[in-house]
Request: fold
Amino acid sequence: MAAGKTIFKRIIDGEIPAQIVYETDRCLAFRDVNPQAPVHVLVIPKQEIASLAEAAEADESLLGHLLLSARTIASQLGLENGYRTVINCGPDGGQSVDHLHVHLLGGRPLGWPPG
Ligand code: AMP
Reply:
């Protein structure tokens, strides 16, 4: 394994397994290993971007692709009653994996505000 490779990059490279639910040329989506709701999917870009703070203007289309992919997955997984998308960014945002990811949560009513 290359030094500094994140767990999500290792999933993209097929080095560790994941329960993949959706894939395009630009993104991969798989079940969160520690689900916080009946449906908890992570949508990640195949391109390595450490966090939303590290995204560039040139990533505008990719960022939209991630959100529209989350919408498609929500529909495919039957979340017709609603769902939440979350991007944690940096230490205060609670980000624990340094590869940009969109959480898709649903399947139960979700409280607000988050902790
Ligand atoms: P965050 O805290 O926003 O960085 O979210 C990282 C998420 O990745 C957490 O919800 C973890 O449960 C999840 N996670 C960590 N390792 C894996 C893995 N190997 N497969 C699936 N999800 C993972």
Q: What stands out?
A: The chain has one domain: 7-106. Residues 60-76 form the longest helix (17 residues). The pocket of adenosine monophosphate is lined by residues 7, 18, 30, 32-34, 42, 88, 94-97 (CB under 6 Å).
